[in-house]
Amino acid sequence: MKREQCFIAGEWVDNGAWIAVDNPATGAIIGRVPAMGREEARRAIAAAAAAMPAWAARPAGERAAILQRAAALMLERADALAALLTQEQGKPLAEARGEIVYAASFLQWFGEEAKRAYGDVIPAPTADKRIMVLKQPVGVVAAITPWNFPAAMITRKLAPALAAGCGMVLKPSELTPFTALAIAEIADEAGVPKGLFNVVTGDAAEIGGELTGNPLVRKISFTGSTAVGRLLMEQASRSIKKLSLELGGNAPFIVFDDADLDAAVAGAIQSKYRNAGQTCVCANRFYVQAGIYDAFVGKMAAAVARLRVGEGTSPGVDIGPLIDERAVAKVQRHIDDAVAKGAQVVTGGSPAPDGPRFFAPTVLRDVRPGMQVLEEETFGPLAPLVKFDEEGEAIALANDSEFGLAAYFYARDIGRIWRVAEGIESGIVGINTGIISTEVAPFGGVKQSGLGREGSRYGLDDYLELKYLCLSLA
Ligand code: ADP
Can you give the C-alpha Rg of the chain in angstroms? Predict the structure, then answer.
């Protein structure tokens, strides 16, 4: 399953130059992938463009059947795929398996949605006209994906693209390319035509330059940092490509004094510590109402102290390694800055002894506005707890960010639930839950968290163009 070649124009190929891939838990090299560049990206784009018309012309039901076969293959191989994913990404095996099932769900879902790309007939303004709207595939799509969800971030783009009738070139993260290449193998086996889906690994800036510059590419779908998203948007502006951008977050998690505290702690743990805090919808800052602040701090610290740190393959592990040592240094920097400005470590607070990329799950109390940890996405196992007094203050604090991907809050009062849900500036709001990701719901952000929605019936629209037909009967 561990392919060490790229998949271009339906062939497994390399160019003799290599990038080493390591296991973040141990630092051991687990394999290598080709270091490709502009030339190979161009070839992959041409292959996708050549394969696309025949694919788009096939009945939606045929495209659906192939996507669903790919979903079934992923599920059949879930254990092996999960092991590969944990080896290159680090997350606990149970989470990796959960991600494979989640990734397969997009193939299944968009297989279903492929058949529902309905058009419209619009009542015309004059008697001699008829107005219709068709939906057609947007064209060749270039996808660039991150390392934190090496499987799901790919199928969330690939499935709607193929369902709509598009071809695709994918550049996965150089840190986690093997899961992407395994997905290419599955797509090939499931019957995706040669050339329609290509995976190119290598120099990000060079491949990205070709993907955003090549006129055959009509859309860029990117998940990653806001800085790279901004750069891709700028590059794509020259040829006015469509963009779906799923960028950084800084999710607030608010606990009101009428919340069920135990449920709030359980939701906080799920939202904050999944994937060791390395998801773009992870709670990044906690606002807890004054009346229950101390009680929440105590329960949260106790629950966090029970989390087990270790290699993702060890049974019972909750927190695996961070992706690299830079990530560890960032968590430490946020703690040091907060402590220097008056916060206190309640549990954790330092790297874990398991290896250079492990960090102990941490809770900070007495965190206040102005500390870095509230302003930047930590992307690690650190929960900063801020005290607030009033509902309006909590909404204002939550909205005091250039990001707006996910937000969470716990409350029981129904009026408050509506006021806060409507007042929060984010694309996703979890109310009395810390888990919001599912293929059936639209995932995406407002403000600098991005453009477009992935998953759900809306997710297909991002890969379709509307064509308006005006027919004169005269
Ligand atoms: P993260 O901080 O999550 O690693 P990045 O935005 O750096 O997020 O990476 C997300 C994806 O973007 C990866 O596949 C990475 O290789 C790619 N990437 C990084 N820099 C560029 C670039 N200049 N052009 C195109 N892709 C890039």
Answer: 23
